[in-house]
Design goal:
There is one protein chain. This protein has 362 residues and is an alpha/beta fold. It folds into 2 domains: 10-65, Orthogonal Bundle (DNA polymerase, domain 1); 118-127 and 163-361, TIM Barrel (Alpha-Beta Barrel). It is 36% helix and 18% strand. It has a 10-stranded mixed β-sheet, with helices on both faces. It has a two-stranded antiparallel sheet with strand order 5-6. Helix 1 (15-24) crosses helix 2, helix 5 (137-152) runs parallel beside helix 6 and helix 7 runs parallel beside helix 9 (250-264). The radius of gyration is 21 Å and the shape is elongated. Bound molecules: S-adenosyl-L-homocysteine (SAH) and iron/sulfur cluster (SF4). Iron/sulfur cluster binds at residues 117, 119-121, 124, 126-127, 172-173, 208, 229, 348.
Length: 362
């Protein structure tokens, strides 16, 4: 399997570069606006259907500017069709996944920023296979555009909706593929037709705690919602649960998140996967409460979704309740994340991992 760079795509370029590229192809610059309208307003990348572009120009545009980056391998639905997980094959055979979730008040897509992940968190399916490669901006953007198309076309029950939220909580560590993720965020948040026109606050970037990335993000001045995967308040356990903690400690990560909060005015989230008898003890809830009581943070507790063969499992309900109560006693905002997609291996990387395993078994 060759793992070449994906072909350059319209969504890899900024609006100025798009015009330059179109001009290089011998077309007037205004064609870039037409393409942007098809792609970001109508979620259409099938150049053959672009009736405002002369037929003889279309083949070249397709190969040079709108190559097909994602091929659907399969979709799995659950929650009465309100959750759909899509498995995609990239140009070099690599697999990634995205999950589309419809709620009464919003439609959210969870996207992958890398194929695999190099961060090695032992409870995570994606982490177990290591990093295969970074995705290009257009490969990440294409997941969002496909989701917007599905939502708009009414593929989920209840009819047509607008894709309203994007979360970087699929495979990969977004801060480890910074440039491509930033270009994707610009594609998502720029007004139509040059982007999808989704508000920055409706985009959540979840990071394992790469402080260098958080600092770069502050300088971008695009106030996306930041989520920090903390998983425990003490360095000793975090060194093993989230090995990047060997480089950036709990205190440094929270300080970087505070800086982000001050620069953007945006409350941040703390992600905390509750693992039975590992990080769910009362004293850890107490320590977390002390750390967060004067911070503008919101805790998302996620019942662990065990990976195949994992020795770990989700916390007992009574321990989960006690954890919530302790945090609340410090006036820390806390919610237990709903477990959408659980029966379709909803947690990060699990569908792609099971596809690789079944392919190996064949
Ligand atoms: N790499 C980024 C974003 C992708 S993971 C990060 O780690 O933040 C998205 C979220 O899913 C993270 O909070 C991650 O810790 C969590 N997660 C990974 N594996 C999980 C599992 N088996 N059960 C529950 N949550 C999991
Ligand atoms: Fe990578 Fe996030 Fe999984 Fe850790 S939890 S291995 S950072 S995808």
């Amino acid at each position: 399997m060759s793992r070449n760079k994906p072909p350059i795509h319209f969504a890899d370029l900024n609006p100025v570069e798009r015009k330059e590229k179109v001009t290089q192809l011998g077309l007037p610059a205004f064609r870039a606006n037409q393409i942007a309208t098809h792609y970001f307003e109508h979620f259409n990348d099938d150049v053959q259907t672009f009736s405002d572009i002369p037929k003889e120009l279309r083949a070249n545009l397709a190969s040079e500017l709108l190559p097909k980056l994602l091929t659907k391998v399969r979709s799995i639905e659950c929650d009465n069709g309100m959750t759909r997980k899509d498995l995609w094959r990239l140009h070099d055979g690599v697999l990634v996944e995205s999950v589309l979730m419809k709620y009464p008040d919003r439609t959210t897509v969870c996207i992958s920023s890398q194929a695999g992940c190099g961060m090695g968190c032992p409870f995570c399916a994606t982490g177990q296979g290591g990093l295969t490669r970074n995705l290009s901006a257009a490969e990440i953007t294409a997941q969002v555009v496909a989701a917007a198309a599905s939502a708009f076309n009414g593929e989920l029950p209840g009819g047509s909706t607008r894709l309203s939220n994007v979360v970087f909580m699929g495979m990969g560590e977004p801060m480890a593929n910074y440039e491509a993720v930033m270009q994707t965020i610009r594609n998502i948040t720029t007004a139509q037709p040059d982007g999808l026109g989704i508000s920055a606050r409706s985009v959540t970037l979840s990071t394992v705690g790469m402080v260098n990335g958080i600092e770069r993000l502050i300088a971008e001045k695009i106030p996306v919602t930041l989520a920090i995967s903390l998983h425990t308040p003490d360095d000793e356990l975090r060194d093993t649960l989230v090995p990047i903690n060997l480089r950036w400690k709990v205190k440094e990560v929270l300080q970087a998140a505070d800086k982000y909060e001050m620069a953007t005015g945006r409350r941040y989230s703390i992600e905390y996967a509750l693992i039975r008898d590992i990080n769910d003890q009362e004293w850890r809830a107490d320590l977390l409460g002390k750390l967060l009581k004067n911070r503008n943070a919101h805790v998302n507790l996620i019942p662990l979704n065990p990976t195949p063969g994992s020795k770990w499992t989700a916390s007992r309900p009574e321990d989960e309740r006690a954890f919530v109560r302790t945090l609340e006693s410090y006036n820390v905002a806390v919610t237990v994340r709903d477990t959408r997609g659980r029966e379709i291996d909803g947690a990060c990387g699990q569908l792609a991992a099971s596809e690789v395993i079944s392919a190996q078994e064949k």
